Amino acid sequence: MCSSEDNTPDIQSASDGLILELKSAHPISLEGRAGCETWSVDFSHDGSWFAWTMGHGIVWVVAWPLRANKVGIAPESHPKDQSLNCGQTVWGLAFGPRPSKNQALKDKAASCDRKSSRLLLATGLENGVIKIWDVATGQLRFDLRGHEGIARELVFTPNGKLTLVSSSRDKTLRIWDLTQKGKKESHVLTGHKDWISCCSISPDCSMIASVGRFDRMVCLWSLRSYTFIKNLKGTNHKTFYLLASCDFTPDGALLATAAFSGSGWWIDLWDPYTAQKLASLVDCCEMYGQNQISSLRFSPDGLYLAIVTEDRALQLWELGKRGMVMQTKEDRASNGLCCNFHPHGGVVATGTRDGHVRFWKVPRSVPSLSHLCRSALRLSVSTQQVEALPIPRRILEFLTYRDIPDLMVARPDCFTDTTIS
Fold first, then answer.
1. 173 close to 199: Cβ distance less than 8 angstroms
2. Which of 252, 134, 142, 257 lies closest to 197, judged by CA?
3. Keywords assigned by UniProt (predicted)?
4. Phi and psi at residue 371, in whole multiples of 5°?
5. Boundaries of every domain in the chain
C-alpha cells in the first residue's frame, strides 16, 4: 500500500470546459493495474468538501474550492485535507448530512455524543465493510458490517438524518441508522437476483430505487415501511441485458435509468409513482451503441442530466428542449466511471478508470418560473394527486413530465457554445 506522501494528487488546470484535473501519484509499478480506479466521487451537502476514491484503498478528502498551483495541493495551505487509508479497494463513498442548528440543539439537550454533530464520510469496501470517518479529524469512527459482497453504492437520506442506504453485490440493500448506540444493525431489503449496481433515494425520502446489474430489475422500495413496492416494466426496447445506473430528479417526479440490450445502451425516464415509462432520452443505436453508460446524475436544479460513458468523460443533456448541450472529447484511454454535481451547480466532477478526477464547467441557467413551480409542487405531491386536480390537460402534462419528447437524438444544431471539440 502506498504512503500518503506517495498519493498526494497533482492538480492541473486546463482551458475550455475542463476546469481542473486531479491525478493520483501512484508508483509506476501500479499504473494501469486493477485497483487504481476512481469508482466514486462526492461533494458534501454544503459544497465545502470533495472526496474521491483515488485507488488502492485510499480516499482523498479536500476542502472546496481547490487551489491550483505548479506543484499540486500544498499541505501547508490546505491543513484540513485528509488522506484516508481504508485498506481495501473503495467502491462507494458518501458524505453524511451536516445537522441543522435546531437538530444540534436537540442532540445537546438529549445529552448525545457531541461528536455526532461532526460531518461524516462513509466508504464502502470490496469486502462489504462500510467504514464511517470523521471528516474534520480523518479518524475512523466505526465499521458497519453485514454485507457479504462489495458495498457498491452508498447514499445518505436527504432529510438531514443520519440514515444510510447501501447496495451490494450480495444482492441486498441495507438501511442503517447511524444514531443507534452500540451495535449498528440494519434493515435488509431482498428481492434482486443478482448484483445491485446502483441505488438512489427520492428527495422526499419515501422511496429507494435500485437497479440490478444482470437480473434486469428496476425496483422501487418504501423507505418508510422497508417493503418492496414495484418493479418498473413496460419498456418499448428489447429485453434488458444489463442495468447500470439510476437517479431521481430533485423533485422526485422522474427516475432515470441506464440499460443495455442487444442493440446498445439507452436511458429511460420513468414516473416512479405510476411505473409508467415517459420517454427514452437518447436513441441508443445512433448515439451510444456498445459504449457502456457508467453513471448518470441530475443537476441540483433538475434542468440537466450528466452521463458518463466508457469512451467519454461527460455528456450533458437538457431535458425537454435541445437535447445534448455539452460533450467532452473522445478519450478511450481514460474511461469514465462516475460523476457528481456540486450542490450549488456549475461544476460536475467525473472519475476515471485510471484513478483521475476531472472538474468540468457546466452551463448555469436561470430556471423558468414554471419549472420552479413544478419542482416545488412535485416535491410533496404525487402523480395521482396531480391527476386529481381540476386543471387543463396541457398543465397536467407539464406537471407530470409527460411533455418530454421521446427519442431526443442530438443533431448538429442542438449544440451550444459549451460543446468541447
1. yes
2. 257
3. Repeat, Ubl conjugation pathway, WD repeat
4. -65, -40
5. 10-414
List, in order, residues 6 or more apart from 267 with CB less than 8 Å away.
Answer: 256, 257, 258, 259, 280, 281, 282, 293, 296, 305, 307
The model's pLDDT over 40-95, given as tens digits with 9 standing for 90+, comes to: 999 999 999 999 998 889 999 999 988 654 333 433 345 678 899 999 999 999 99
Q: What distance in Å separates the CA atoms of residue 92 and residue 186, rounded to the nearest whole number? A: 18
Residue 86 contacts residue 131 (beta carbons within 8 Å): yes
For the beta carbon of residue 394, count every other beta carbon within 10 angstroms: 9
Cβ neighbours of residue 13 closer than 8 Å, sequence gap 6 or more: 19, 20, 68
CATH of 10-414, one of 2.130.10.10, 3.90.226.10, 1.10.10.250, 2.40.50.90: 2.130.10.10
Distance CA 2, CA 56 (A): 8
Which residues are within 8 A (CB) of 17 and not within 5 positions of it... i.e. 6 or more apart?
A: 326, 328, 360, 361, 362, 418, 420
Q: Cell for 4?
A: 500518503
Using one digit for the tens of pLDDT, what is the confidence trace for 207-251? 999 998 777 789 999 999 999 999 987 544 445 556 678 999 999
* Cα–Cα dist 250/203, whole Å: 6
From the list 290, 365, 305, 294, the residue with the least C-alpha distance to 341 is 305
Separation CA 386–CA 397 (nearest Å): 10
